[in-house]
Structures are given as C-alpha cells and as structure tokens.
Amino acid sequence: MFRIDEDGMVRSALIEARRYTSLERGDMPVVNGIVVHQTGGSTAQSTFNSYANSTVGAHFLIDKDGAIYQTASLYKRANHVGLLRSRCLERHNCQPAELKRLQAATLRQRSTMEHGKAFPDRFPSNRDSIGVELVGEYNRNPEFGTVRGADEYLYVPVTDEQNAALRWLVGELRRLLSVAAEEVYRHPQVSYKTPTEAATASW
C-alpha cells in the first residue's frame, strides 16, 4: 500500500520519484481512468532524457526490470493520450444524429467533439487520467515491404517484471483514486496509436 502526499507524489519504498514539472499541464481534480503506454525506447534513461526537454509524458514509468518511477504529480494533468477516440463509435451505441456528425468528421474533429463531453460519455483523457509508461521499443514488422504508417510497427513484449509491477501499481491507484476496473485502457483503445502498443501488458 502507498499514500499520496500534498504534492501528489506517491510515498512508497517501491516507487522512486523522478518528477519532471515540465510534463505537468495544470490541475487534475478528479481521476476517471488509467492509460497504459509503451515508450518506443529501449531504456528508462532514454525516456528521462526525452522528458527533460518535453511537455509530453506520463505520470509513471516502469522499467524492464520492474522498477517504478513517478515522473509527474497525480494532482496535475499530463499530455499522454493524444487524439481521443469516440466512445460511442467504439461501443457501437451512437445516437443517429451524432453518428452522422462523427462519420463526416476528421480524427481531429472527432477528438474535439469528444473533449466537449463529460465523462463517462467519453473515454478518460489528458484532463482526467493517469498515464503509465512501460519501457519498450518497437520494430518494423517484416511482413511490411514499404512504410505504411503506425500499423507496420511491432512493440516488444512487456516483461514479466513489468507486468508484476503494473498489476501492483494499477491496483493501488484504483484503490486510492476509486477508478473502475473497466476504465483502465491500453493506449490504442482510447487514441489513434500503433495497435501493438502495450498489447502484452496485463493488470
């Protein structure tokens, strides 16, 4: 078990604080979900190097050996989701008028429409979700002969140590922040990302 201090930092012997205030984009008074990512890089240090000069990142990073780092306050938003998928489109339950608008919209327009909704009519977004990154690179799918976008990349499998740490971390966050089990997602489930990202993550 762990606790969260007044700065939104976790107090636990199992989590090392590596806070990057440049990732924090404003207050996050409520947490409705957790989004699990893979970094695209092969080491934790490469992610730390990126975070030092970036405004895009997540709240936690789990290294391949299972070490957990907290990189942003749980009381602050972080840019980790990207363009938001339409929840009603994914669940096949849009009202006819909204379905027509969504089908005519670009992905960016769809995302803007989703951000105008209150949770739970939309997926958790940057403004109300915790991001957890798993160190893991991607490689080109050898079945692709030419570059055709995100689908041609394959992320490496998540390690057993990472999954053990992820299960513990997600369990603690859900308990402390009252996040429903069905509101924990892999990144591609809520945004337009490489389908294999975090595909082997389990919690």
Q: Would you mind describing this structure in some detail?
A:
By secondary structure, this protein is α/β, with parallel strands linked by helices. It has a single domain, classed as Peptidoglycan recognition protein-like (Lysozyme-like, 3-Layer(aba) Sandwich). Helices cover 26% and strands 23% of the residues. The strands form three sheets. Strands 3, 5, 6, 7, 9, 10 and 11 form a seven-stranded mixed beta sheet that branches. A two-stranded antiparallel ribbon has the order 1-2. The protein has a two-stranded antiparallel sheet with strand order 4-8. The chain is globular and about 50 Å long. The model has no long low-confidence stretch (mean pLDDT 94).
Which descriptors apply to this entry?
single chain; 203 residues; alpha/beta; Lysozyme-like; 7-stranded mixed beta sheet; two-stranded antiparallel sheet; 6 helices; 23% strand
**What is the strand tally?**
11
Shape: globular
| CA distance, first residue to last residue | 16 Å
Helical proportion, percent range: 25-40%
Q: Would you identify the regions where 5 or more consecutive residues have pLDDT less than 50?
A: none
Strand % is 15-25%
The largest sheet, given as strand count, sense and whether it forms a barrel, is: 7 strands, mixed
Domain unit count: 1
Order of SSEs, N→C?
EEEEEHEEEHHHEEHEH
Number of helices: 6
Cα-based radius of gyration, to the nearest Å: 17 Å
CATH class: Alpha Beta
* CATH fold topology: Lysozyme-like
**Any guess at the CATH architecture?**
3-Layer(aba) Sandwich
Query: Can you give the mean pLDDT?
Result: 94
Task: State the CATH superfamily name.
Answer: Peptidoglycan recognition protein-like
Structural class determined from secondary elements = alpha/beta
